[in-house]
């Protein structure tokens, strides 16, 4: 492993930006200093570059089972984490969905092993809480899972009949989360409203791909966000709302935070940078853009940016759930399996590799946020909320040497062929960006260098131990 010196860069943390050299030894940051005369086995010249903590993507779906475990997302823990590393992300937090015929606890242990065999960057897992009729003793499993490092649980308020839990289940789960110091997360869409609207669209023959966005209305999201906040508050639990897509939902969060509620929320690059107008006229190719909640009208985006600036939105994660347009060799047809019929299109979009570049472009290069806020959104805040801080999420002595040397003046065009995700399209294909990662280190290992070459074996990624979340 040895030592690495990153010299002459500007170290950017969530609260400061200073010129400093960074000395790394045996996987950790061991010194920060100005004009140092340190020597090391490897030297990376970061003149004119920023040195930031590795990105933490708190929301990914690698080899994620769908359709009753008959198929899955295109990227597995290997391809997905290689792509993540190329994009400057050195930790991912993925999900465990209970397998039929197996308890949530057993599923979790198997998935943790699978991820450990294949990942090239560090990972953690959130448990998805199944409806009680799928596992009546699920609360007992959740207790055991908290001891095994699953310090965050996701509840679906959407997808009735498969994943949706009712308000009683939310209350019981939130209460247990509060007791155990676990952070509950919600996919906030009112499943009944979406199902009803979907049926109305089917009955009137409006099933083309873009009607997915009509089915998943702004109100259905805002209602569920509001309800989740009220339910969490009623049992004294904190709350994390994943993939906020609608300005109306962000408003609910903003209001609640102004009232002192302990609620944090995430949005995703696709909601900030891509719009309904980009796919509404594409016919069946609009399937590429389908995810839930949906990518909404361009007029909605400014409200999300405002919430990012004010802090109502605390993190930017990808919700990377990539499906191919053309059928992959090893899987059944994916995005185009039901042309002209949106209810059967697998939900989810890729982005694990694009996140930092897209947020930098729309946020920092556009003058909306500064580099410190960027670091907070993509690394520090997720580290704090999910119990990884200060081991991760900060460039500081003692922290893991998960580091990105970032070129803030790069002139780069994102392309499908130039990225490493398995999906055969990229939502940002052709987008010109002015910042990109040029070196990526994970626990001191130099995974990606300035030429873009990659050096990291499957299985080098480790399960990230989680401590107490910093909920402030
Ligand atoms: N977001 C999406 O459409 N698919 C992934 C699963 C989820 O987060 O709901
Ligand atoms: Zn979700
Ligand atoms: Zn998701």
From the structure above, extract its key features.
alpha/beta, TIM Barrel, eight-stranded mixed beta sheet, eight-stranded parallel beta sheet, 30% helix, 21% strand, binds N-(aminocarbonyl)-beta-alanine, binds zinc ion, Amidohydro-rel
Oligomer: single chain
pLDDT below 50 for ≥5 consecutive residues: which ranges?
none
By CATH's scheme, which homologous superfamily of the domain at 55-365 applies?
A: Metal-dependent hydrolases
**Euclidean distance between termini CA atoms:** 36 Å
**Bound chemical compounds:** N-(aminocarbonyl)-beta-alanine, zinc ion
How helix-rich are the residues, as a percent range?
25-40%
Per DSSP, the total helix count is: 13
User: What is the CATH architecture assignment of the domain at 55-365?
Assistant: Alpha-Beta Barrel
Task: Give the CATH topology of the domain at 55-365.
Answer: TIM Barrel
Tell me, briefly, the overall form: globular
Average per-residue pLDDT, rounded, comes to: 97
Largest beta sheet, briefly? 8 strands, mixed
Portion of residues in beta strands equals 15-25%
Q: What is the strand tally?
A: 20
Return Rg in Å: 21 Å
In the CATH scheme, the class of the domain at 55-365 would be Alpha Beta
How does the helix and strand content classify structurally?
alpha/beta
Structure description:
With 472 residues, this protein is α/β, with parallel strands linked by helices. The protein has a domain at 55-365: TIM Barrel, CATH 3.20.20. 30% of the residues lie in helices and 21% in strands. The protein contains 13 helices and 20 strands. The chain has helices at 77-86, 104-118, 138-147, 167-180, 191-203, 211-215, 218-234, 247-258, 269-273, 276-279, 301-310, 355-365, 371-385; strands spanning 3-13, 16-25, 28-33, 42-45, 50-53, 55-57, 65-66, 71-72, 89-96, 122-128, 152-156, 183-187, 239-241, 263-267, 315-316, 403-407, 412-413, 432-433, 436-442, 445-448. Strands 1, 2, 3, 4, 5, 16, 19 and 20 form an 8-stranded mixed beta sheet that branches. Strands 6-9-10-11-12-13-14-15 form an 8-stranded parallel beta sheet. α3 (138-147) packs parallel to α4 and α8 packs parallel to α11 (301-310). The longest helix is centred in the middle third of the chain and has 17 residues, at 218-234. It is globular, with a radius of gyration of 21 Å. The model has no long low-confidence stretch (mean pLDDT 97). The structure holds N-(aminocarbonyl)-beta-alanine (URP) and zinc ion (ZN) (2 copies). The site of N-(aminocarbonyl)-beta-alanine has 9 residues, from loops.
């Amino acid at each position: 492993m040895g030592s690495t010196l990153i010299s002459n860069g500007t170290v950017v943390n969530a609260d400061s930006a200073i010129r400093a050299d960074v000395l790394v030894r045996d996987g950790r940051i061991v010194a920060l200093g100005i004009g140092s005369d340190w020597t090391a086995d490897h030297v990376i010249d970061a003149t004119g570059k920023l040195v930031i903590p590795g990105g933490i993507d708190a929301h990914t779906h690698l080899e994620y089972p769908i359709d009753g475990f008959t198929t899955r997302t295109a990227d597995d823990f290997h391809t997905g984490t290689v792509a993540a590393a190329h994009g400057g992300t050195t930790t991912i937090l993925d999900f465990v969905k209970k397998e039929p015929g197996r308890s949530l606890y057993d599923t979790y242990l198997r998935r943790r092993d699978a991820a450990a065999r294949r990942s090239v960057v560090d990972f953690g897992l959130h448990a998805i809480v199944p409806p009680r009729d799928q596992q009546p003793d699920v609360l007992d499993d959740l207790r055991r899972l908290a001891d095994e490092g699953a310090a965050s649980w996701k509840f679906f308020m959407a997808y009735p009949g498969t994943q949706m839990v009712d308000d009683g289940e939310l209350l019981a789960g939130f209460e247990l989360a509060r007791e155990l110091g676990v952070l509950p997360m919600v996919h906030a869409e009112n499943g009944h409203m979406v199902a009803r609207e979907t049926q109305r669209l089917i009955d009137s023959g409006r099933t083309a791909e873009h009607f997915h966005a009509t089915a998943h209305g702004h109100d259905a999201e805002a209602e569920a966000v509001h309800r989740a906040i009220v339910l969490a508050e009623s049992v004294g639990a904190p709350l994390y709302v994943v993939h906020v897509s609608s300005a109306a939902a962000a408003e609910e969060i903003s209001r609640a935070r102004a009232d002192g509620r302990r609620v944090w929320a995430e949005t995703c690059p696709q909601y900030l940078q891509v719009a309904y107008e980009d796919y509404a006229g594409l016919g069946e190719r609009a399937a590429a853009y389908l995810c839930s909640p949906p990518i909404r009208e361009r007029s909605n985006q400014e409200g999300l940016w405002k919430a990012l600036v004010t802090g109502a939105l605390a993190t930017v994660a990808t919700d990377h759930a990539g499906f191919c347009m053309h059928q992959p060799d090893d899987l059944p047809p994916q995005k185009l399996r039901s042309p002209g019929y949106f209810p059967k299109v697998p939900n989810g979009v890729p982005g694990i590799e694009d996140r930092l570049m897209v947020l930098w472009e729309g946020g920092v290069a556009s003058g909306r946020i500064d580099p410190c806020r960027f670091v907070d959104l993509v690394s520090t805040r997720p580290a704090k909320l999910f119990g990884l801080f200060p081991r991760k999420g900060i460039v500081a002595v003692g922290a893991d040497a998960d580091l990105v040397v970032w070129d803030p003046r790069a002139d780069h065009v994102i392309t499908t062929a130039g990225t490493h995700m398995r999906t055969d399209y990229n939502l940002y294909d052709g987008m010109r960006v002015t910042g990109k990662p040029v070196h990526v280190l994970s626990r001191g290992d130099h995974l990606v260098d300035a030429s873009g070459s990659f050096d990291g074996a499957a299985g080098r990624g480790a399960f990230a131990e989680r401590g107490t979340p910093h909920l402030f």
